[in-house]
Write the structure tokens for this entry.
Amino acid sequence: MRVRSVVLFGIILLMQIGSGSAVQTTGRHPELLYDSNELTEIRKKAASPALKPVAQKLIERAEKELKGAVLIPSITGRGEPDPQGESKGLSCARKLQVRVLTYAMAFNLSGDRKYRDAAVKELLQAIDDWRIWVDTAHPPPYDLMTGENSLTFGLAWDWLYHDLTVEERNRLREGVERRALRPYLDAAGAKRPPWFFKGLNNWNPVCNGGAAVLALALEGESALASDVLKIAVPAMDYYWGHLADDGGWDEGTGYWTYGHRYAFIAAEALRRAGKPGGAERFKLPGAMRTGYFPIVFNPGRKITAGFGDSNSRANDAIFYLLGREYRNPDYIWFQDREMSQSRNSTWPVEALSLIWRPVGESWLPEAKALTGQNSNRSICSRR
């Protein structure tokens, strides 16, 4: 049977996830981006016309990743060639993120334990076998690679928590304490802390936001979590303070996507946990309007009127988060169009789209189209 058929049956019919050998616990997970009740709704949404193709692509990507090569971060320097089968540290962190979060969501949708097992295998391999968690282009002890890994492990821990064995949870917790949380605290306590603690660009939310998400996931189970949150949350004030009321971003559309992705994920997780640094971020005038910046600078279907050294078009599930938050169909419309023509991303866009893309609401573009209203409103029409 084709993978396509399998996923459709799995998404529609498998509503209860089998636990297998995992130890059952009662706890707050998942909670960072959705809870157990919302997961039931996500499974229902995955069978809707708007999201069925996304769910199908998620499973297809998961199947492809199962056949992928082992991820091995290279320890060669910037500009130096990598040994065969290896790639630079930051590249490996992004590939790991795609694999793990795709597997985790595929498991939560279908109940097929091969995806759970694959996610755990990748996570443990990154802890046990990776020679570096800081890209060789950056000084230790903590950088973008560490920040990206932190977010990956934090979300995976949250999404898979009740289907992890006690041994797996212990190994994962001890591993990320050693390779992410402790290095973050060491960096913050250095005589000259890295500049990203007060940075105004993408480094700030990737490094601090990644650490915050991991700390939230481990809160109550790691003695390091509260100390990390005390540093990471106020550190992101510098980034949010740099966002002007018009929502524009001086790094261009590529880094807008990268930085805002981590900033908004951290803010959403903090908001859901009832902590400072969450709900107030979404009330910022710049946060409400910032989704228009990449729309204006990415006109049509191919043009990128960007600047800086990362001029890629914006294509990210945070448009769905922003669209849902502000009930703005323009953001939904833009990302729907980008998703329909995009190829494999270096980000698990399908998994997060299934979480954030709303369906069945009267303000959505597809609802307006059905009622004869113009779904492609001018982006200048909103105030």
